[in-house]
């Protein structure tokens, strides 16, 4: 039984094209879930305007500059800032509320 080379080459090329297509589809699916696809809220917190959020939180603080500085650091790490200025709103952003100063163990975020 003799095989002609053209059909075998065509099948091999078609198989390679299919593999490349499947691999490209998998890469696209992986990138979209990491960079903001349908699972964005699970993998990456949405970016917020830390400057204005911290201004609102620290506006009445007696150490306004220090409060803003620390708030912006915490906001950058957590991508959230509690809405109010009191201790009762800290639970709105658990990352922000649970960040501790490594030197003294006190809350890092104002």
Spell out the helices and strands N to C: HHHHH
- Strand residues, percent: under 5%
Rg: 26 Å
Low-pLDDT residue intervals, each spanning 5 or more residues: 28-42
What is the structural class?
A: mainly alpha
Query: Average pLDDT value?
Result: 76
Largest sheet: none
* Tally of strands: 0
Q: What does the model show?
A:
It is a single chain. By secondary structure, the chain is mainly α. It has a domain at 50-98. 58% of the residues lie in helices and 0% in strands. It is built from 5 helices and no strands. The termini are far apart.
Sum up the structure in keywords.
single chain, 110 residues, mainly alpha, 5 helices, 58% helix
Kindly summarize this structure in a few lines.
This protein is mainly alpha-helical and 110 residues long. It has helices at residues 5-35, 40-43, 50-58, 64-78, 94-98.
Q: What layout of secondary structure does this protein have?
A:
Blueprint: H1 5-35, H2 40-43, H3 50-58, H4 64-78, H5 94-98
